[in-house]
From TrEMBL:
Keyword Metal-binding: no
Full protein name: RBM45 protein
Organism: Picathartes gymnocephalus
Annotated coiled-coil segments of the chain: none
Repeat found in the keyword field: yes
Domain RRM: 21-95
PANTHER family hit by this protein: RNA BINDING PROTEIN
Length: 224
């Protein structure tokens, strides 16, 4: 649809259309730009690859960009790449600043913030928590509240929380007065919700914007 709209508008400079040629992906922290290029070059001609790094340590945050020469190549990469990359169209750059992710990240990054990497184990038992981590002191439920200073995009937030198995629905709402983001997430089990909160509370998405994730009462007995 994006490609069709671009062509219908009379634009013939599709190779320079940042909104349609740049994708945002989740990658292992061990990936280099060469690794990223190698994984995605099969889908088309790559103009550049970049990896988002922690400003303090220089370590990869497990997130990156790939820009193709043509929108059709970016679309193919999103459609055909492994789902573990969670590929989506990146936020467009504007003429007065760098990309949204880098600009917001550089303005808000503090040395004490930890780097983000979703090291999910896609097994039913969700890997093994340390015993201390399972002694949750707050009431738990299958529902989560997610708050952000920035508005959410439904598809992107759903894709993020769908990394944890058992996602039933993601309801994104928007405050017209503050322009902040708010969403309600529900999983099929309390275990999934606990794991999602454990992994995603404080996660920067997009980079520089920390998510606040808390439990919501769902009317069930939380003792289980």
């Amino acid at each position: 649809v994006f490609i069709a709209q671009s062509r219908a508008s009379g634009s013939h400079r599709d190779v320079e259309d940042e909104e349609l040629t740049r994708i945002f992906v989740m990658i292992p922290k061990t990936y280099t730009e060469e690794d990223l290029r190698e994984k995605f070059k099969m889908y088309g001609d790559i103009e550049y690859c970049s990896i988002i790094k922690n400003k303090t340590t220089g370590e990869s945050k497990g997130l990156g960009y790939v820009r193709y020469l043509k929108p059709s190549q970016a679309a193919r990469a999103i459609e055909e790449c492994d789902r573990s990359y969670r590929a989506i169209l990146a936020e467009p750059k504007n003429k007065s600043s760098e990309s949204f992710e880098y600009d917001y990240y550089s303005n808000n990054m503090r040395p004490e913030l930890r780097g983000n990497t979703l090291s999910f184990c896609m097994q039913p038992e969700f890997c093994s928590f340390e015993k201390a981590e399972t002694r949750i002191q707050e009431p738990v439920s299958k529902r989560l509240s997610v708050v952000s200073r920035l508005p959410f995009i439904q598809e992107q937030l759903f894709a993020l929380f769908d990394l944890v198995p058992g996602l039933e629905y993601c309801d994104v709402q928007r405050d017209p007065h503050t322009n902040s983001g708010y969403a309600v997430i529900q999983y099929s089990t309390a275990a999934s919700a606990i794991y999602a909160k454990y992994k995603l509370h404080g996660f920067e998405y997009p980079p520089g914007n920390r998510l606040t994730v808390i439990f919501l009462e769902d009317g069930n007995d939380s003792s289980e």
